[in-house]
Amino acid sequence: MNSQRFVSPRRSAAVAALTLLPALWQTAQALDVDAGEYTAALPAGSSMLLLYLQHAERRSVYADGHKQPLRAGLDSEIGILRGAHYFEVGGYTLNTQFLLPFGRMEGQRDHKALGEASGIGDLILASSLWLVNDPERNRYWGITPYLYLPTGRYDRDDALNLGENRWKLNLQSGYVTGLSERLSLDLTGDVTLFGKNDDFTGQGLTLRQKPLWQAQSYLRYQVTPALSLHVGASRLWGGESRVEGRGQDDRPDTSKYLVGASYWLSPAVQVLANYGQDIAVENGFKENQRFNLRLLWAF
Question: pLDDT-based confidence at 12, cuts 50/70/90?
Fold first, then answer.
């Protein structure tokens, strides 16, 4: 790949898939919340350990909202190990968290040339603060900053990387309210601010990115005290990249849906499963299916 491809104002979808898409995909993936995320304000002194597993398949790629004539392919198996510890300060519930992504990505079909990447992603440190924590009225409001450290595996000569070689800061806020005795609404919004990657591609170019925004919502229905069903939607916008100061016209502008369920196997162990698809994509790969599994252990 030569540098001219990265400074032209409008790039082909194939080049977008080879360069910027993995980073944007990882950004969106790391910020997705599960149904009931902001209801998990445990008592002070409690802890949680979570394991996330995801398989996703992408079989089409878009540029300016138009599907490209390619046999596109990018598959991924990604996991996240997450830990949280809860405490109380001044009557407010807080936690400290770490999130460690790991897994593999592999190009398929016409994107076989992407190769594959595996290993550890960028470590994420976070802390949630609940400004409203009212279980009796089923009302919660929390804010969470996430700090991404450039610790993951990164090689500028590889088209796919689990690490991004840049710092990131995400600011997220989530609100939960009960609509009826069994029905709840989750609303979550966030923005990601990006540091620069000054070792981008084999030419060592500088990558910068505008803020990336995301809005998510879930409707949850409590079938039994242990079983909950949910349906959700997400919208991602902004986040145009610049390489050597030139805009790449690569805003993802992605919308998707999720359906799933959660079940408490015991008072301390929960399993959650989701299935989802992208509805529309402006630029980049479109997920034709995604399977998520989350295991939670509270102690």
Answer: very low
What 3-state class would DSSP assign to 137? helix
Q: What's the rounded Cα separation, in Å, for the pair 194 and 191?
A: 10
pLDDT tens by residue, 227-260: 999 999 999 999 999 999 898 888 989 999 999 9
**Bridge partner residues of 280 (DSSP):** 255
Q: Which residue has the tokens 């046999």?
A: 71
Beta bridge partners of 169: 147, 193
Whole-number Å distance between alpha carbons of 209 and 252: 12
Distances (CA, A) of 295 to 32, 54, 81, 270: 16, 12, 10, 6
3-class secondary structure, 279: strand
Number of structural domains found in the chain: 1
Q: What digits encode the pLDDT tens for the residues 178-218? A: 999 999 999 999 999 999 999 998 888 999 999 999 999 99
* Mean per-residue pLDDT, 123-149: 95
CATH of residue 89's domain is 2.40.128.130
Q: What is the dihedral of CA 132, 84, 255, 273, to 10 degrees?
A: -110
Which of 98-131 are b and which e, b meaning 16 or more Cβ less than 10 Å from the residue's Cβ? Answer: ebbbbbebbbbebbeebeebeeebbbbebebbbe
Q: Could you give the CA distance from residue 209 to residue 195 in angstroms, rounded to a whole number?
A: 8
Range of the domain at 23: 4-298
